[in-house]
Amino acid sequence: MTVHLLHDTAVLTARTLRHVTRSVDTIITTAVTPVAMMLMFVYVFGGAIDTGRTRYVDYLLPGILLITVASGVAYTALRLVVDRESGIFERFRSMPIARSGVLWAHVLTSVVANAISLAVVVGVALLMGFRSGAGVGAWLAVAGILLLFTLALTWIAVIPGLTATSVEGAGAFSYPLIFLPFLSSAFVPTATMPGPVRWFAEHQPVTPIVTALRDLLAERPVGGAIWTALGWCAGTLAVAYAFAVAAYRRRIG
Q1: Domain limits at 154?
Q2: 160 to each of 80, 88, 155, 164, how far by Cα in Å?
Q3: What total of structural domains would you count in the chain?
Q4: Transmembrane ranges (predicted)?
Q5: Model's pTM, two decimal places?
Q6: String of DSSP letters for 13-70
Q7: Residue-wise burial string across 58-75, b where 16 or more C-beta atoms lie within 10 A, e elsewhere
């Protein structure tokens, strides 16, 4: 059974990855847009923002990485809506294919596509002056957090992908996810924010994730932020997965 699931998931993942490589707008949205934002913030606003001894590109990068993922997972919802409306799910049901493999194919495609986009963003950041003396262990921890974050947001994307009545509606869910880093410590220190905004920024999930990534890349001691970050990612992943599976069973049967 496990071998059957893995084989079906691999075949279906290859199918969705081919769709991604043929879609130029996907590449532009998931890689070029975050790069453009990074260029604008560093070269236009960076000089006006005091981040102490930390260069602004170093300070900014973790937040841009999260926005990259939030932008990328929107396409998971769009691809699911397109597959659903084309009747491909019904055709899959008539074939000896593991049903869970269909969802996992879209999720794994999201992980691969976002990994490529993240690598492009980091590469551009290096050209802009980003530097990190973090060791292999720290980089693996960064990759692990980003992977968990990507999985959590992708399973959130699966829900509107299965329940939305239109392509536009499926993609709209990502707007709050993209906007959330702006109300965190991703772009400016929370100490500069007014009271209510500062409270929200310091207690929403993006801030501890950004803080953990920033400390790891800067070779600073990682405190409780990493556990808070992992807790938010793991908790969101578990809840989103449960709702996504329930939506899949109701919609597809």
Answers
A1: 2-252
A2: 9, 17, 10, 5
A3: 1
A4: 27-49, 61-82, 103-130, 136-158, 170-188, 225-248
A5: 0.89
A6: HHHHHHHHHT-HHHHIIIIIHHHHHHHHIIIIIGGGS--TTS-HHHHHHHHHHHHHHH
A7: bbbbbbbbbbbbbbbbbb
